[in-house]
Amino acid sequence: xxxxxxxxxxxxxxxxxxxxxxxxxxxxxxxxxxxxxxxxxxxxxxxxxxxxxxxxxxxxxxxxxxxxxxxxxxxxxxxxxxxxxxxxxxxxxxxxxxxxxxxxxxxxxxxxxxxxxxxxxxxxxxxxxxxxxxxxxxxxxxxxxxxxxxxxxxxxxxxxxxxxxxxxxxxxxxxxxxxxxxxxxxxxxxxxxxxxxxxxxxxxxxxxxxxxxxxxxxxxxxxxxxxxxxxxxxxxxxxxxxxxxxxxxxxxxxxxxxxxxxxxxxxxxxxxxxxxxxxxxxxxxxxxx
Length: 289
Description:
By secondary structure, the chain is α+β, with helices and mostly antiparallel strands. It folds into 2 domains: 38-204, no CATH class; 225-288, no CATH class. It contains 7 helices and 11 strands. It has a 4-stranded mixed beta sheet. Strand 6 (190-194) and strand 7 form a beta hairpin. Helix 4 (91-111) crosses helix 5. The longest helix is centred in the middle third of the chain and has 21 residues, at 91-111. The protein is elongated. Mean pLDDT is 89; it is low at 125-135.
């Protein structure tokens, strides 16, 4: 065993260091057999059935998807700040960036797939609303945006690694080799991160230039830096999210009945060049370049 304090956060750059590889395996053993936190391999659907994902209280349901779109439209007049990372500390800018990130991930799932599973752990939250959890709920990381993309496309067969300290999930725990094999074939560089002796996260080095380009493409070229034009009715609570100037440029939505807050996530299906028209029984959306 190494002399590392595994109750403190630490990165393991094991692809560059043999010592870090052994330290990460020692950390794994510490988490399982000292901290008694067990990694379980679940599906998105299983966690949805258990109401750890998919509900409004979980933070990973349709309400959150609709909220992403709501905030994007509400702050459409903000300047584009993708090249100024400090701006993302401002909530309004953060919402805009992450809404488009979710949109980008949805398109990735549909075209090339997502290359690694989301990971999660139980994290104490001061609430008694959640069943049987005694104030504890799932916190997803890495995968804080992917979890929303998977929810939107209803990818219920997708794998999720959950670090379970209380045997909430009735499954055998993963072995180190089973866990590592889920990431070992990735072309990108990877490294492990110990979270205070309670879970071991696997992170992927990535340069998503095309995602950052998509932020600009969607906001400036697809939406023309304007709210969508709505032709039809909507609930009063979302009326302010749309234009009524009858100018068909940017994104235009036509409805056969009343558009509601619960409908907003449909805009996440749009993607430059891949999908610029949506036709449903009640709703049609088109992009006018």
